[in-house]
DNA sequence: TTTTATAAATTGGTTAACCAAATTATGCGG
DNA sequence: CCGCATAATTTGGTTAACCAATTTATAAAA
């Protein structure tokens, strides 16, 4: 069997349920930041769910910085205040899956920044990596093949050169979904490859010459088509 | 025991090691997008690690959209091309923990966008939520107490009103670490509370009147101190 | 009473056995 | 050789028992 579409694990409901119960527990027991949560066994028993589910949920809350597990010691509430805990947990519970428009909007925002930062901070190694990604994209695009991957890798190389690890992580996070959506909505089907090469090259040159203003403008031009497409697709 | 500092799980090394081996396996066996990975048992056996570790690693790669687990069927490589897989996996392996400067830089970037979007898209409910957060912050700050949590919740309320779920998620992701760093570096210790109330109120008013340009400017003013502080702390 | 050494209990992490669903292999009938 | 029902196998997920480190309780010694 080959995987065609994308399936989503439906354990989100269980996790959210457990998150709610943990929140109730914290409020009911008046647990303060830094306090220890009941053990995983007690929680799974009290909530009537498997300990695996409890562990997964705790790991999720760890990702958002709400909890912190210490081996052989316990799970602790982060030192960020009860008010913030409640507010953030509510936000986490209400989080919805990102739509295409929100993804593209965010990508454009991030990349107009990374290209500026890369122009200012890029090392020689960074420049070499970007050039390699550019060449790979060019040869693939000229051959007439689909070059979405090489396209995105060029942009990721710029993100890496920005020297901002947070933005770099975020770019990595949204890239796969963007690739999938691109192919789903056939964003890059046209013969925009040749245009793309020119635009990519201009961006690269601006970064090379450490001209952040020009680099941002070239990136903006590069995104102009995508921008329109994004708001067109929205209604789909 | 109360948790004071922050400890980091050192299972990152094991995970990265497994990620590398999975990457090698994909390349060695010439697995294509959509193909099925060997079962968790075979991987844990071949890599000589526990199946739990394999599962955790697979979940991490699932988060980045590289893999996809289907119950009772197998783990599949996402449909995003072998080139992109290799490039992204390399990036994931090289990812470093976010530093304070990178966090603040990203936060400012995101919030200058959310405040603009919130001005354009906020519903009446959104406005009410922001107002509530503002009032909570005001009363806490006026009492002379530490109001970092209420401060951040105000900003999160704006992020929610932006209508961009991706940025909203990102804001939630970086907020806890920002709170911790703020208290660590004593960013908000001064009597900036009164100034903060004024600035927050101005931002709120601009959003209420749906004036994105003004809102962005007010947010920029609000961040001017933080901006300087960020680049000062960098050298610490 | 305080201190310290020792044992019991608790903890998150790990391992292995088990489960139900999905896949694959098998073999019968045509 | 093909079609199809059935059995055997494989799969990710779940459960429970186990482990080593930590914490707490206990009591002996000062």
Give a short overview:
With 236 residues, the first copy, chain A, is mainly alpha-helical. Chain A is built from ten helices and two strands.
* Beta-strand share of residues of chain A: under 5%
CATH topology of the largest domain in chain A: Four Helix Bundle (Hemerythrin (Met), subunit A)
Broad CATH class of the largest domain in chain A: Mainly Alpha
Unreliably modeled segments of chain A:
1-9
Mean pLDDT of chain A: 87
Radius of gyration of chain A: 22 Å
Distance between the termini of chain A: 30 Å
How would you describe the oligomerization state of the chains in this entry?
A: homodimer
Helix count, DSSP H or I runs of 4 or more residues of chain A: 10
Do you know the CATH architecture of the largest domain in chain A? Up-down Bundle
CATH evolutionary superfamily of the largest domain in chain A: GntR ligand-binding domain-like
Domain HTH gntR-type (chains A, B): 12-80
Organism (chains A, B): Flavivirga jejuensis
Protein name (chains A, B): FadR/GntR family transcriptional regulator
Pfam families (chains A, B): FCD, GntR
Layout of helices and strands, plus pairs?
2 copies of one chain form a homodimer.
Chain A: H1 12-28, H2 40-47, H3 51-63, E1 67-70, E2 74-77, H4 82-94, H5 100-121, H6 124-142, H7 148-161, H8 165-185, H9 193-208, H10 212-233
Antiparallel strand pairs in A: 1-2
Helix pairs in contact in A: 1-3, 1-4, 2-3, 5-7, 5-8, 5-9, 5-10, 6-7, 6-9, 7-8, 9-10
Chain B binds a DNA duplex (30 and 30 nucleotides) through helix 3.
Keywords (chains A, B): DNA-binding, Transcription, Transcription regulation
Domain HTH gntR-type (chains A, B): 12-80
InterPro entries (chains A, B): GntR_C (IPR011711), TF_FadR/GntR_C (IPR008920), Tscrpt_reg_HTH_GntR (IPR000524), WH-like_DNA-bd_sf (IPR036388), WH_DNA-bd_sf (IPR036390)
């Amino acid at each position: 069997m080959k995987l065609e579409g994308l399936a989503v694990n439906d354990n989100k409901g269980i996790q959210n349920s457990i998150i709610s119960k943990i929140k109730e527990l914290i409020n009911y027991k008046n647990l303060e930041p830094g306090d220890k949560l009941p053990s995983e066994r007690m929680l799974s028993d009290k909530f009537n769910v498997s300990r695996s589910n409890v562990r997964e949920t705790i790991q999720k809350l760890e990702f958002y910085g709400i909890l912190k597990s210490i081996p052989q010691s316990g799970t602790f509430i982060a030192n960020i205040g009860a008010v913030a805990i409640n507010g953030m947990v509510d936000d986490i519970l209400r989080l919805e899956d990102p739509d295409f428009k929100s993804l593209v909007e965010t990508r454009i925002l991030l990349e107009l920044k990374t290209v500026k930062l890369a122009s200012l901070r890029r090392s020689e190694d960074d420049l070499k990596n970007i050039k390699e990604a550019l060449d790979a994209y060019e040869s693939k695009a000229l051959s007439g093949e689909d070059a979405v991957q090489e396209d995105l890798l060029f942009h990721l190389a710029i993100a890496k050169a920005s020297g901002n690890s947070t933005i770099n992580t975020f770019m990595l996070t949204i890239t796969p979904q963007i690739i999938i959506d691109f192919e789903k909505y056939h964003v890059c089907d046209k013969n925009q490859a040749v245009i793309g090469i020119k635009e990519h090259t201009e961006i690269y040159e601006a970064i090379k010459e450490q001209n952040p203003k020009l680099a941002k403008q070239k990136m903006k031009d590069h995104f102009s088509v995508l921008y329109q497409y994004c708001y067109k697709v929205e209604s789909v």
